[in-house]
Each structure stands twice: as C-alpha cells, then as structure tokens.
Amino acid sequence: MKINKIIAAQLITVFSLFFSLISNGQGQQGVSLDKIIARVDNHYILNSELEEMYNQYKAEGRTAPEKCQLLESLIINKMLLAKAEIDSVTVEDKEVDGELDAKMGYMIQRFGSEKNIVEAYGKSIDNLKTELRTQVKEQKIVEKMQRTISGNVKITPSEVRKFFNSIPKDSLPYIPSEVEIGHIVKKGTVTREQKDKLRQQLLDLKHRAEKGEDFATLAQIYSEDLGSAKNGGDLNFAKRGAMVPEFEGAALALKPGELSDVVESQFGFHLIKLIETRGAEYHARHILLRPDYNKGTDMTQAIRALDSLRTLIKMDTLKFAKAALDNSDDKETAESGGLIQDRNTGLGKLTLDASMDPALYFAIDTMKVGDLSQPVTYRLEDGSSAMRILWYKSKSEPHTANLHDDYEKLAQIVLSNKRNNALEEWFKKAQGDVFISIEPEYKNCKVLGLASANDI
C-alpha cells in the first residue's frame, strides 16, 4: 500500500464535495450514473463519488490519479469509519459544527454573503450544510482513528540523521527560498448604527414571542446560528463554563420560560430563552443575529491597537510573540507567536514562490527581514474584516537540503513515514475485521493488494 494513498484517504472525501460546491456555483449540476460500486460493512461508495473526485482533479488543473487509486482511497476511508464503529470511536457534535462553520465561513467569504450562496445554488444554507455535515463528521472520525492508530509514534534525532545519510548526495533535493512571517490581527469594530439595528430586530422578536408566537419557530426563521436554528434554537443541556460568559450569565439569571434582554458576545447578539436547569447544567434556546462584517465595520480601534503594539515592539519593550499571544484575534496563529504556518506541512516556513498567498507575497516584497509593516487590511476565514501588522522574521536562500537548515522538514518526513508504516500494519490486520465488496466492473483494480471483490 502506498503512503500517499493513506494520506489521500484522510482528506479526499470531504474536500471533493466542499471544493465542488465553491468552484463554480453550479449547485444543481448533475453527476453520472449514481450506483453503488463498493461496500465496506455498512458504508457504501457511489459511482458519483468516484467521478466527482476524478473530475475535481481536472477542474483544478491537476493530473488525476487512476480511478483504481481513487477507489482504493475511498475504500481505505470507509475502512477507518467501519473500524471506528466497531471500536466505538466518535467525535463531539460541537467539534463537527465548528469545522462546518469554518467551511461555511470560507464560502461566505468567496460569495460575499449567505444570500448570494442561496441564489447561486438554489438551496437554503441549512440544506447545503446538511449535504456537507456528513462528510465533515466522517472526516473528523477518520482523523481521530488515525491519531488512535499512529498518534503515539515518536522519532529520535538519530533516525533523522540515518534517513538523511541514506539519501545519495546527488539526489538531495533543492530547497527554494523560504520565509518566516508573523502577524498580529485585530478585528474591526461593528458600528453603533449596525449594533442598534440588530438589537432592535431582536427586541421586536422578543415582543412577538411575548405576544404568543412560538420562540422555536422564530429561531428557525431568523436565527443565524446555523447549527441550532434548524432545531428551533435549541442548544441542549450545557455544563457551566461551556458557553461564553456573557451568554451563560444572562441564561442563568433567567427563570424557566423567561426571555433575556439582548445579549452581546463575540459571536453576535443573542435573545435567550431558558428551558430548565438541572444541577450544574442548563438548557436554553436562542436566536442569534450576526453583524455583517462587510458593511458598517469600523477599523479605527483596530488600527490604533496595532499602531500601539507596533511602537512597543519596535522599541523592544514588547516581543512580537508575546504581543501576538496576548492580542491577536487570529487564535490559530497567536499560540505559535503569530507565525503563519504552511497549511500543507504545518511548519512555520513558507515557500517564497507563486504558491504563497498573493496578498502576503506582495506585502513582504517591499519589506526587509526584521521589518514590521504598517497596519494593512485582512480578511479572516470566517469572512470578518480585520487589520494586521506583519513581521518579516527570516528568509533563507535557496540551497541543497542539509541536516542543519532543514532538520524540521526531514524530521517531518521521517515521522510521516513511521506513522504510515503503523497505518499499513493496521490496515493489514483490519481487513479481516470488515466486509469489503467491489462491483465486477472494477475487478481489475488491485484494491488493497487484492484482485476482486471475491478475494476480499
């Protein structure tokens, strides 16, 4: 079994649907003959999945693997899911919802608004999320299974040196120029006018509920919390400390059946209805309205905050990493001292070529190593507008790979190989625990090293 097939199995299913949704807006586009071509226990693989994956490679201008390879990737994915069921491996709904919201945020960023998405696909946001949610959940389970199988694999410096020394000197790769870039991000502030508008909308909904309209129905119609709206704003039981303080404080101040005043949190503006309390848990519904970060966003405070941080950093009164950790609104990079990581490698070094984010590439083109930029505009993944300052931490010259400069990359390769060896061993054992059937038309595919459905 090839290592890259295992990695493909980890990612390919969910992204094939997600990127097909955002690529051209053809939400209603049909697919070829939708029939079952393989089965792994109670999980089925459709011909449309295989075709969609194959066509997505071509749409992105990449060379598509053979369909047999893609089928094997799908089967590996389903094997992980089947074994997860056997071993009772699950993921929390909140984890799935968080990932789903991030992907929907990316779509909103691409299309400009939820309304534009609905118009492009002829489907409601809820329907689009339902289509994607199953894939996202399966993906999270696959990732958890892989962590369970290979998460304890470790490597030593001697293993990295041994790997490097095993590469013939004339075969050492050429490493292009790489840079380390840090940023500190501050979101824009919603204008008073927009806040007042959202508050008034929620007060109107509160008045309607007090007059007898069903709160759950109002939440289904108006709430912008896409995860709970379809359930009438129902958030189920939550333990104390699970919700943001503003929400929890307002909810716990209510009696069962009461409605809150308008509550502002980092997620937007809430109207809360307490259902009941049970020991250290409470059960509430809410209606959430979010500010439109493409309209009515004031960047004055963000720019002032970044200017102040920039001055302190330049005076060496404050270290950039500390400033990012304590102040950046991009929490993903804040924990790494503000360093922007390569999404493919997870490392803090970015290849200085056409693969880099164009906005970042052109920003540092006029900077020198050690420079701090002035505040520049930025768009977070959830679509919200922000400002950021950039720190040009370092730049390496192009060179032939060596153990000193490229240890992190080499260690990552060694760790990946070792983890995938563990996965391969697991797959060999797991084949006997699940039922796999492949349709005769793919009998020539040596899936998992076997020739046909009857061999599995």
Q: Brief description of this entry?
A:
With 456 residues, the chain is of the alpha+beta class.
Name some characteristics of this structure.
four-stranded antiparallel beta sheet; 17% strand; 47% helix; 456 residues; disordered N terminus; globular; alpha+beta; disordered C terminus
Provide an overview of this structure.
- It contains 16 helices and 15 strands.
- With 456 residues, the protein is an alpha+beta fold.
- Strands 11-4-13-12 form a four-stranded antiparallel beta sheet.
- Helix 1 (3-24) runs antiparallel to helix 6 (125-150) and helix 3 crosses helix 6.
- It starts with a helix and ends in an 18-residue tail after the last strand.
- Residues 1-25 form the signal peptide.
Strand % is 15-25%
Q: How many angstroms separate the termini?
A: 15 Å
**Uncertain regions spanning at least 5 consecutive residues:** 1-17, 22-33, 451-456
Walk across the major sheet and give the strand order: 11-4-13-12
SSE class: alpha+beta
Q: What is the overall silhouette?
A: globular
Q: How many DSSP helices?
A: 16
**Sheet with the most strands, sense and barrel status:** 4 strands, antiparallel
Mean pLDDT: 83
